Amino acid sequence: MRSMPTPFDDIEWRVTPGLTDYATALAEMEARAAAIRTGEAGEMVWLLEHPPVITGGTSAAEAELIAPGRFPVHAAGRGGRYTYHGPGQRVGYVLLDLDRRGRDVRCYVARLEDWLIATLADLGVSARKASGRIGIWVDDLDGREAKIGAIGVRVRRWVTLHGFALNVAPDLSHFEAIVPCGIPEFPVTSLAALQRAESMDRVDAALRMRFPDFLQSLGGSAIAS
């Protein structure tokens, strides 16, 4: 596990190598969020990968779980529907205190999307938002609109939990176990499927480079330069 200082406040930037059990990560994330609220811990961005797992948000519908026995299924407690996590996907848990950075959840979600879009641009991929559909969208090699990144958040006592999942080089066939994010009309893609062979370290570096812009866009009174 690598923890690196950031130039902004006391935000911890944590990168965990290998695969982290989802339930273990969820428990640690929730404990950290509670500690942030009480002032016992600082904010954190946690980048990791999970073993194959399906997580269900508060709007998950049973009919969208196409192969319920294929992978473990966990209730995540975040917003949204079913999402797949697995090796080759960069998951980012973003734990920030919106008391300090503006109590605007819609703005926060929009800025998360902007952060990933800017990161992908730095990696040579043109990505965008889609009206009425949360997440990050691109055109795949067949010209179809496809989802490359998912957003799912929870805010508890104004501390954010969960965050994003960016498809770097996962096994895309694993997404066939669900209706990803409840949207059957569009395929899922990845950097690898777009013929962008990026290492996870390179993706992390691009996320880190754009992180200050993300924080600045949130506003609030505690951003340091």
How does this model look, in words?
- The chain is an alpha+beta fold and about 220 residues long.
- It has a single domain, classed as BirA Bifunctional Protein, domain 2.
- The chain is about 25% helix and about 30% strand.
- The protein has helices at about 20-40, 100, 105-120, 200-220, and strands at about 1-5, 10-20, 45-50, 55, 75, 80-85, 90-95, 130, 135-140, 145-155, 160-165.
- The strands form two sheets. Strands 1-2-3-7-11-10-9-8 form an eight-stranded mixed β-sheet. Strands 5-4-6 form a three-stranded mixed β-sheet, with no helix packed on it.
- Strand 2 (about 10-20), helix 1 (about 20-40) and strand 3 (about 45-50) form a beta-alpha-beta unit.
- The longest helix has 19 residues, at about 200-220.
- The two termini are about 25 Å apart.
